[in-house]
Amino acid sequence: MKILLFLLEKEFRQILRNKQMIPLLLIAPVIQLVLLPLAANYTIKNISIAVVDNDHSTFSRELISKITASGYFRLTGYTAFYNEALSLVEQNKADLALQIPVNFERNLVRENSAKVFIAINAIEGTKANLGGAYLASIISDFNSDIRINWPAAPAASDPPQVAVISSYWYNPFMDYNLYIVPAILVTLVTAMAALQSAFNIVQEKENGTIEQINVTPIKKHIFILGKLIPFMVLGIILFTLGLFIAWLLYGIVPAGSLLTLYGSLIIYLFAMLGFGLLISTYSSTQQQAMSLAFFFILIFNMMSGMFNSVDSMPQWAQTIVQTFPTSHFIKIMRMVVLKGSGFSDILYEIGAMFVIGLILNTWAVLNYRKTTG
Amino acid sequence: MITLNNIDKTYNKGSVTALKDISFSVKGDELFGLIGPDGAGKTTLFRILTTLMLADKGEASVNGFDVVKDYKQIRNCVGYMPGKFSLYQDLTIKENLNFFAAIFGTTLEENYDLIKDIYQQIEPFKDRRAGQLSGGMKQKLGLCCALIHRPKVLFLDEPTTGVDVVSRREFWEMLKKLKRQGITILVSTAYMDEAKLCDRIALIQKGQILSIDTPANIIDSFPEKLYGIKSAKFSGVFKLLQDTRSYPGIASCFAFGDSLHATFNDSSDKRLINYLHTKGNSDVTMETITPGVEDCFIHLLKE
Q1: Which residues of A touch B75 (CB under 8 A)?
Q2: Which of A209, A219, A227, A372 is the mutation pick for testing B, counting most B CBs within 10 A?
Q3: Label partner for A117 (CA 20 to 30 A): which of A86, A152, B20, B155?
Q4: Is the separation of the CB atoms in B78 and B85 below 8 Å?
Q5: pLDDT tens digit sequence for B48-85
Q6: Helix or strand or coil: residue B81?
C-alpha cells in the first residue's frame, strides 16, 4: 500500500511536469465543446434555391415568397428556363431547382391539382435530404393555405385528413445541443483515458524505465494500479470541467443526479483505462500504440450512436456496438442528462460496461509480463 | 555468488543464437568482467540473470537463488544497471533516488554510507532533472539507484560506454571500493583496456565463451612472441600494415593506434625492416612487446 502511494506521487509529479498535459486537459475540452456542436448540428440553413417560373401567376409568386420567407432558403436564381437553373446547380450556385410549370395556377383552380418539379443536388447528402423535405413541407403548407382562402372550394368535398402533432419529450424544442453535447463530452473522456494511459506505459517501455522497474520486487498489480489511478482522477477532472462548460455555454444542467452520472463515469473509465492498458501491452513504441488506439477510438466514437441511432444499424452491427463501452456510456449520459434517469433505469448499461471493463483489464494484466522472450 | 550451467538462449524461434552453452561462476567478492564486442550476447546474459528473460535451456542462480523459481528473492537482492540509461528523465536526481529507495522499502538515509562517495559527486546537481545530466553523471546516478537497496550482487551492463576517460577511471575506482564492501559485481564492457581492472574476465564472442581467467593469466597464455612495428611517418600506418601483411613470414598483423602488432610464423625476422624500407616506409622500428587483452582476444578469435 505504501509503495502504491510512492508510485502515485511519482506519476502525478511526472504528469504535472509534462508541458502538454495541462493545456490538453484544460483547454482542449473548452475548444472541443465550443466547436464540435456546431459541426454536428443537423439544422440546415442557407439552402440555395433556383426557381424556374414558367407560370408568372399570382400563385407562383406567392409560393416563391413563401419559400424565401421560411428562412431556410436563399433565392440564388430566378429564370424561365429549366436548363439555366440546372446549370446553376452544376456550378454549385444552387442546391435545389424548383420548376413551376405553365398553367400552374389554372390547373390548380380548374382541376384542383397542379404539379411542381424539384431537382436536388445530392452531393451533400444531408443538405439534399433535409432541403428536399423542407421544400416539400412548405409546398404542402402552401397547398392547405390556398384551400382555406378559397371560397369556391366546397369544404364538404375534402377528404378527411389526419393531422399529426408531435410533442418532443425530454427535449421539447428539439435543441440539438442538448442531444450532442453530452455525447461529445463522452468522446473527450474516451480519448483522454484510452490514449494517455496507453502512451504512459509505452513511454516507460521506450525509455527503458520499465526494465528498471521490472527488476525491483514491486508487484505487478500495484504497478498497474499506480498507472490507472492517476488517469482515473484526470478523467474525472476532465468530465467535471466539461459539465461545467456545457452549463456555461449551453445551459445544460443534468436532469438526473450527479451521483448516478459520476458512478457511471467511474465504471466507464475503468473499462477505457483497461482498454488503454491492453493497447500498451501489445505495443513497444508510442507510435504503435497511437495507431492501434486511434483505430479503435475512431470506431468507438463513430459507431456508438453519437450522430446516428444505433437502432437503425443492421442487427450484426448492433451486436458489435454492444461490446463498445462508449455506446453504453453515451446512452447513459443522454438518459441521465436529458431524462433524469436513475440507477435502476441504467442498470443494464452499467452492468455491460462493468463486464467489458473486467474482461479488458483481466486480459491486459495477463498479457503484461515482467519477463520477456 | 553467480553460477551458470549450460545456458542456451535463442531468438526468433531458434533462428538467432544469442547464447550457447554458457557455464561459469563468479565468487562472492569478485569483480568479474564480461568482455566482448557488440552483439556477443552480454546483455542477454544480464537479462537472464536479472530474471527479465528466461533461458531456453540450462540453470542459473544468483546469490543461491534459482533465476526461475526464486525470481522474487533475486529481485530483492540484486542491483541492475542496464546499458541504456533507464531512470526517469523528467524526475530530478533526488526524486529518482527516493523513488527507487521507496519501492525497495528503504530510504536514501538508511544506505547513505554505501553510495556516499558516488552521491557526493552528483549532489550539487540533486535538483536537476536526470534527462539534463551529462553522460558521466547519468552513469553515477544509475549506479546510485542500483545500489540504493544495498544489493548483494550488482549487474552493470556496459556502464562506461559513451563516458569520458576521466569519468571512466573514476567509475572503476568506485567499483573497486564496492567490491571491498563485499558486493559481487558482474560488469560487461567492450573496452579491452578495462579488462585488466577486473579480478577475472570471460572473453565472449557470438554467444560463446572463448576463455575465462584472470587478466594476467590470459595475457600469459598468449602463445607467440609479439612485436610492435612503428614507422616515423605518422600517416603511413595503413600502407605499413599492408606492406607488413604482404611479407611472407608474417603470421598475423593488426593496427593498434599508430603502430602494428605482429607475430611471425617461425621466429623474428630482421629482414622485415629492410623489406619495409624498400617498399617506401621510412625509419621503421621493431621491438618485442607484452601482449594486451585485445591481442589475446584477436588470437582466440582466430582459433
Answers
A1: 215-217
A2: A209
A3: A152
A4: no
A5: 999 988 999 999 999 999 999 998 899 999 999 998 88
A6: strand
Helices B135-147 & B165-180 angle (0-180, nearest 10): 10
Is CATH 3.40.50.2000 correct for A47-157? no
**Residue A370 confidence class, pLDDT cut points 50, 70, 90:** low
3-state secondary structure of B151: coil
The neighbour count for residue A89, using CB atoms within 10 Å, is 20
Instruction: Please answer whether residues B93 and B125 qualify as being in contact, where contact means their C-beta atoms are separated by less than 8 angstroms.
Output: yes
Amino acid at A245: I
Residue of B nearest to A11 (CA): B91
Which residue from B82, B103, B145 is facing A208, i.e. has the nearest CB? Answer: B82
Q: Which chain A residues are closer than 8 Å to B102 by Cβ? A: 2-3, 6
C-alpha cell at A296: 479503435
Q: Nearest 5 degrees, angle CA A39-CA A42-CA A44?
A: 100
Please classify residue A163 by burial: count the beta carbons closer than 10 Å to its beta carbon, then call 0-12 exposed, 13-18 middle and 19+ buried: exposed
- What ipTM did this prediction achieve? 0.77
Considering only CB atoms, which chain B residues are within 8 Å of A372?
47, 52-53
Least confident stretch, A162-166, B113-117, B188-192, B217-221: A162-166
* Site from A368, A371, A372 to mutate, B interface, most B CB atoms within 10 angstroms: A371
- B147 to chain A: nearest residue by CA? A216
> Residue A261 pLDDT more than 90?
yes
Q: Looking at the partner chain, which of A2, A3, A208 has a beta carbon nearest the beta carbon of B86?
A: A208
pLDDT score, position A160: 60
C-alpha cell at B129: 532533472
- Taking 90 as the threshold, does the pLDDT of residue B186 lie above it? yes
Q: Which tens digits make up the pLDDT trace of A134-184?
A: 888 888 888 877 777 765 555 555 556 677 777 778 877 777 788 888 998
B75 and A217 within 8 Å at the Cβ level: the answer is: yes
Write the class of the CATH domain B226-302. Answer: alpha beta
Choose which CATH entry (2.60.40.420, 3.90.245.10, 3.30.300.330, 3.40.50.300) describes domain B2-219: 3.40.50.300
Burial of B132-163, coded b for 16+ CB within 10 Å and e otherwise, reads ebeebbbbbbbbbbbbbbbbbbbbbbbbbbeb
Distances in Å between the alpha carbon of A322 and those of A325, A349, B193?
8, 9, 65
* Cα gap A135→A59, rounded to integer Å: 16
